[in-house]
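Look at one such:
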Amino acid sequence: MKQSKQSLEKRVLTVVLPAVIFVAAFVFIPAWTLDYWQGWLFLLTLFIPMFCVMFYMIKFQRKLLEKRLMVKEKREEQAFIQILNTLIFVAAMIIAGLDHRFGWTIVPVWAVIAADIVMLAGYVFFIRTMLYNEYASRIIVVQKGQKVIDTGPYAVIRHPMYSAGILMYLFIPMVLGSFWGMVPLLFIPITLIFRLLDEEKALIKGLKGYKRYMKKVRYRLVPWVW
């Protein structure tokens, strides 16, 4: 048991530490300065909750954490979308950094703070939904013994984690003090819609009771809209 715990913690470090370095590099290198308070605000908003949740999951939700560490998609369509989303995210950070460096746009401080609050709210909703669903893997796969989750946010919309993700991602450039950085992220809702539609195909085929759940919960992302 002790060996398993050490193994899981080591896997967490091998995922989280490169992620911190990766994101920080694409924030500060294009800006070409560390005197970039919006960049520091973004990193703190992104990683402090992540570290807190990681510690919580190591102690109380180890099986769910193991699923969240699975990143290699088995479905070809999902692997393509995963790569595309990464490129979109990187492009947004690079543009935001260049925007800060060359002063293309000026986002008022109040707008940066407001965007940060919205991003954090989306992040909290994402985390809350993830902890509500013991099958919330990062990849699209029907797990052994998996059951339909139809309570909590899943009683209102079928894909609350996607809704939270869209809310969180769209406001990242404003947190970074850039309007131009929002342009690539406008494609995120489109790619996530394609991802969830493909996910539903897999769930219809492999998860017992999912068709009944779709009839019970009609809306995918936004209540009373779609």
Remarks:
- Residues 2-216 form a domain with the Four Helix Bundle (Hemerythrin (Met), subunit A) fold (CATH 1.20.120).
- The chain has one domain: 2-216.
- The two ends are 45 Å apart (CA to CA).
- DSSP finds ten helices and no strands in the chain.
